[in-house]
Amino acid sequence: MVLASGSGTLLQAVLDSPVLSSLVAVGSDVPDCTALARATSAGIDTFVVSPASFPDRASWNEGLLSVLSSFSPDLIVSAGFMRILGPSVISAYRGRIINTHPALLPLFPGAHGVRDALAAGVTETGTTLHYVDEGVDTGEIISQRVVPVLDGDDEASLHERIKTEERDLLVSALETFVATGTFI
């Protein structure tokens, strides 16, 4: 299962890969996100659990957990999903939720990893695949790829190079998981 909030470029990499046949559904917190259209075009079930439909975060998390449970996923991939999952979801799927992040964690966690890396003046950054835990980008690291920061890079150019590695890293990890049941 994949959770996404935006354009779905990470999702598209999964849809274009051999692991497509293992994908049970794509969910979002945004009703009109492009990721849902990509999934629908590929014949994958979709769902939306909008925070606006719930009185608070805890209720939204319970609603999300209910929908997730109805699909019985072996693994949940947060691929550009811009919501922090609550304790009930993490507890139910501990060790089975993964996320990609556009930085070499533990450096530059949070929503602005690329911008923060540039602001820090690092010469390399990259992408991290990690398990989701109760913190923000603090879960155990599964794998990383390094991307050099080039002279003249701005946030957009660096992020595009990171996304290329991020897509390949995610698909490679998912192919291993589907074949072996683990990321190793």
Which bin fits the share of residues in helices?
25-40%
- Main sheet specs: 7 strands, mixed
Mean pLDDT: 96
CATH superfamily of the largest domain: Formyl transferase, N-terminal domain
Overall shape: globular
- As laid out across the biggest beta sheet, the strand order is 3-2-1-4-5-6-7
CATH topology of the largest domain: Rossmann fold
Strand tally is: 7
Structural class: alpha/beta
Tally of contiguous helical segments: 6
Write a structural description.
The mean pLDDT is 96. Helix 1 (9-15) packs parallel to helix 6 (155-180). The chain has helices at 9-15, 34-41, 57-71, 87-92, 113-120, 155-180, and strands at 2-3, 26-28, 46-48, 76-78, 97-101, 124-131, 141-148. It has a 7-stranded mixed sheet. The longest helix has 26 residues, at 155-180. It contains 6 helices and 7 strands. The two termini are 20 Å apart. It is globular. The protein has 2 domains: 1-93, Formyl transferase, N-terminal domain (Rossmann fold, 3-Layer(aba) Sandwich); 100-184, Rossmann fold (3-Layer(aba) Sandwich), CATH 3.40.50.170. By secondary structure, it is of the alpha/beta class. Helix content is 38%, strand content 17%.
Concise summary:
This protein is α/β, with parallel strands linked by helices. It has six helices and seven strands. Strands 3-2-1-4-5-6-7 form a seven-stranded mixed beta sheet.
Write the layout of secondary structure elements.
Elements: E1 2-3, H1 9-15, E2 26-28, H2 34-41, E3 46-48, H3 57-71, E4 76-78, H4 87-92, E5 97-101, H5 113-120, E6 124-131, E7 141-148, H6 155-180
Parallel strand pairs: 1-2, 1-4, 2-3, 4-5
Antiparallel strand pairs: 5-6, 6-7
Helix pairs in contact: 1-6
